[in-house]
Amino acid sequence: MSYTELEHGYQGLRSASRPIFYVGDLSSVQSTLVGPVASSIYRSSKRAELSDGCSNDDGCMGGSDLEGEGKQVLVGICAMAKKSQSKPMKEILTRLEEFEYIKIVVFPEEVILKESVEDWPVVDCLISFHSKGFPLDKAINYANLKNPFIINNLPMQYDIQDRRRVYAILESEGIEIPRYAVLDRDSSDPKHHELVESEDHVEVNGVTFNKPFVEKPVSAEDHNIYIYYPTSAGGGSQRLFRKIGSRSSVYSPESRVRKTGSYIYEDFMPTDGTDVKVYTVGPDYAHAEARKSPALDGKVERDSEGKEIRYPVILSNAEKLISRKVCLAFKQTVCGFDLLRANGQSFVCDVNGFSFVKNSNKYYDDCAKILGNMILRELAPTLHIPWSVPFQLDDPPIVPTTFGKMMELRCVVAVIRHGDRTPKQKMKVEVRHPKFFEIFAKYDGYKHGHIKLKRPKQLQEILDTARSLLAEIQHRAAGPELEEKQGKLEQLKSVLEM
Ligand SMILES: Nc1ncnc2c1ncn2[C@@H]1O[C@H](COP(=O)(O)OP(=O)(O)OP(=O)(O)O)[C@@H](O)[C@H]1O
Ligand SMILES: [Mg+2]
């Protein structure tokens, strides 16, 4: 089943009427719940109201017409317009607005870039992340000034922009990464940029990398990654870049490594030709999907709608643990990273920080639900909002319904056996002929009251008897009683002849 089919199936399920109380079962083929997650209480018809009364100018995403004007948690979205106006962001914010006690405030890009942080909107919770052109230093100053509840740690977003820091953090967490060395041409210490190059390998600060190996700019913002092929495979290199239309890489006959700039050199990990993209929402939830590696031939696989083809992935337990560790180590609730499945293990080769899954309603629902509950659990008590955590880890699975509370069916365990049976290899025949009694006597039948004949020689005797009796019948030498048994004797004969 393709990813698109899965998503269509999910949309079909969603189109069924939504209950007021929505108890989350967040596990699915492509989304993995690493641990228990609280369910949420949505207002039943809020989404329909959202399209009204929302003006983009004030940064409101809707829901400004709340009945009773009760207290609300203000959740600020502080990111470049390209990100805060993106489709996945809008999908998730619309769903977050369905929480009665949450109001979204999108910081306009103009304000972020031009206004001083003292004049930025005041919020209780901040979802803020770096992308090209974003003033991360200002966002950090704002967070220090106003001290909101932070969803994605801001200073660590500097680390995420530096592949050396990313690898150092992953290593310190005991997460598997490709074997690597840093060639740091910015360092004044010559020991940090020693390069010996020969046809099929490089030595970086004394560490040898045989081709194929990967060369990555130290800046994670620079996507010009080169993979060098061994001469046995024809040499040359594959040059990766940020997707341009239908291409993500191109072959180059150049076999020598770059001589300006600082790079990470690492072992090329042999995968099945796909990258596993993982998207966390907190340490206990991860969505994973696979895509064709840009390292392959550089041709991007697209479906009829032009969307990049994705394959469903089920994370192993070890990978769920990696996902948890990455989310916690980088303090990024919403965090995307790449896994390479190679040699029976999973290696993290890239951590991208804040990143939403695209075109998955299941993910949009899950993500909004987890973030909403996380925010309210943290802030409702301090803001005196009468919100109760709808589901605790050890709660019995009781769900409210329109006619009271009832136990929720969590699973059905069945022990099932197949219905086909081996036919019994048995036949019954009554014998009266003296020849059978001779055999009975011969094997001490009278002494024991029964005989068991198993050996080939014994069975041959029974067969010989059956044959001679049948011959008698043929020659009309047998009495009528034996003739009656002809059918049985033939059966006995053919069974023993098999
Ligand atoms: N060590 C490796 N072994 C094999 N393939 C690799 C390795 N490192 C990277 N790749 C391939 O190169 C691709 C790009 O690498 P990486 O994800 O580190 O770069 P990036 O430009 O930062 O990516 P992104 O677009 O996700 O930000 C990976 O998706 C993977 O297919
Ligand atoms: Mg990547």
UniProtKB/TrEMBL annotation:
Location in or out of the cell: Cytoplasm, Cytosol
Similarity-based family: Belongs to the histidine acid phosphatase family. VIP1 subfamily.
GO biological process: inositol metabolic process; inositol phosphate biosynthetic process
Recorded GO MF terms: 5-diphosphoinositol pentakisphosphate 1-kinase activity; ATP binding; inositol hexakisphosphate 1-kinase activity; phosphatase activity
Gene3D superfamilies named among the record's database cross-references: 3.40.50.11950, ATP-grasp fold, B domain
Domain annotation VIP1 N-terminal: ranges: 73-162
Official protein name in the record: Inositol hexakisphosphate and diphosphoinositol-pentakisphosphate kinase
Domain of life: Eukaryota
Pfam families referenced in this protein's UniProt entry, alphabetically: His_Phos_2 (PF00328), PPIP5K2_N (PF18086)
Organism, as annotated: Melipona quadrifasciata
EC code(s) of this entry: 2.7.4.24
Keywords per UniProt: ATP-binding, Cytoplasm, Kinase, Nucleotide-binding, Transferase
Residues in coiled coil: none
Lineage: Eukaryota, Metazoa, Ecdysozoa, Arthropoda, Hexapoda
Keyword field contains Iron: no
Task of the protein: Bifunctional inositol kinase that acts in concert with the IP6K kinases to synthesize the diphosphate group-containing inositol pyrophosphates diphosphoinositol pentakisphosphate, PP-InsP5, and bis-diphosphoinositol tetrakisphosphate, (PP)2-InsP4. PP-InsP5 and (PP)2-InsP4, also respectively called InsP7 and InsP8, may regulate a variety of cellular processes, including apoptosis, vesicle trafficking, cytoskeletal dynamics, and exocytosis. Phosphorylates inositol hexakisphosphate (InsP6) at position 1 to produce PP-InsP5 which is in turn phosphorylated by IP6Ks to produce (PP)2-InsP4.
Cited SUPFAM superfamilies: Glutathione synthetase ATP-binding domain-like, Phosphoglycerate mutase-like
GO cellular component: cytosol
Main subcellular location of this protein, as a coarse class: cytoplasm
Catalytic reactions of this protein: 5-diphospho-1D-myo-inositol 1,2,3,4,6-pentakisphosphate + ATP + H(+) = 1,5-bis(diphospho)-1D-myo-inositol 2,3,4,6-tetrakisphosphate + ADP; 1D-myo-inositol hexakisphosphate + ATP = 1-diphospho-1D-myo-inositol 2,3,4,5,6-pentakisphosphate + ADP
